[in-house]
Amino acid sequence: MDRFVTRTKKRPATATAVAVATHNELETTDERKRTRCAVSGDEEEYDCPSEGEFSAPLPWQKIEAEALDLDYTVLFSKAEADRLFKKLEEEIEYFSGEKAKVQVFGKFYNIPRKQATYGDPGLMYSFSGVHHLARPWTPVLEYIRDCVTKATGHTFNFVLVNRYRDGGDHMGEHRDDERELDPACPIASVSFGAARDLVFKHQDARGRRAPAPRIAPVRLELQHGSLLLMNPPTNARWYHSLPVRKRVPLPRVNLTFRRILRDGRGRAAPAGHSAPP
């Protein structure tokens, strides 16, 4: 049986190495105190964590391997996650045209998912050969970002939104190691909609010519309303992907919150590694 550790804002000192997180086990925490707050001008309300809510800590699950450091929890109740998912479907404007393509070895291909970028004014992020200027935060994105900050103690100024129509949409193996990302800040991944498995593979275990897999892949099912922290040095040594799952008929929206460093002109530094489709 997987063992869970709890914390308020900082990562726990003790941990258990596991390969799969299960939603039911993570739901065993005591019901948390909540306060009401408006998310948008239409007077719709959501269960917003109060400043003291996380004194009853979330049940974090630690996943560790060589140079792999992940923390996983279910951040939002099903009712909250359902409403946030609906609001994201209404608010997010996804890229089209050339910005909806990816560059691989000098050629552009359609991205097998929808993408959008939001964040603080003037932030530019480059990946897959395309430069993206962050749109202003929407109310629901600000709300989710603030919930993540309260749960983790980390602040974020940018989010990449990926929408998967069904199990046919996917993301190839890549590392989020662009030079403009703050290397001291984890990447916070929040998932809504259909549960999909995220697969982590060590850089030395990739490809047909890789030596005998001394380090096994790690497969993690990301549930509706869940939060995954990819802590340093994970992205320096491990690739991750969202494989095709033909039996998944429903959509999924994933938000990866990041902290981008600015250069002297107030823009993000030049991009580094580009992610494949």
From TrEMBL:
Record-level GO BP terms: DNA alkylation repair
Region (Disordered): 21-52
Cofactor section: Fe(2+)
Chief place where the protein resides: nucleus
Every Fe2OG dioxygenase domain range: 155-261
Catalysis performed (reactions): a 3,N(4)-etheno-2'-deoxycytidine in double-stranded DNA + 2-oxoglutarate + O2 + H2O = a 2'-deoxycytidine in double-stranded DNA + glyoxal + succinate + CO2; a 1,N(6)-etheno-2'-deoxyadenosine in single-stranded DNA + 2-oxoglutarate + O2 + H2O = a 2'-deoxyadenosine in single-stranded DNA + glyoxal + succinate + CO2; an N(1)-methyl-2'-deoxyadenosine in single-stranded DNA + 2-oxoglutarate + O2 = a 2'-deoxyadenosine in single-stranded DNA + formaldehyde + succinate + CO2 + H(+); a 1,N(6)-etheno-2'-deoxyadenosine in double-stranded DNA + 2-oxoglutarate + O2 + H2O = a 2'-deoxyadenosine in double-stranded DNA + glyoxal + succinate + CO2
Acidic residues composition bias: residue spans: 41-50
Amino acids binding substrate: 105-107, 125-127, 174, 177
UniProt xrefs under InterPro entries: AlkB-like, AlkB-like_sf, ALKBH2, Oxoglu/Fe-dep_dioxygenase_dom
Origin superkingdom: Eukaryota
PROSITE patterns: FE2OG_OXY
Entry protein name: DNA oxidative demethylase ALKBH2
Species per Swiss-Prot/TrEMBL record: Lepisosteus oculatus
Taxon lineage: Eukaryota, Metazoa, Chordata, Craniata, Vertebrata
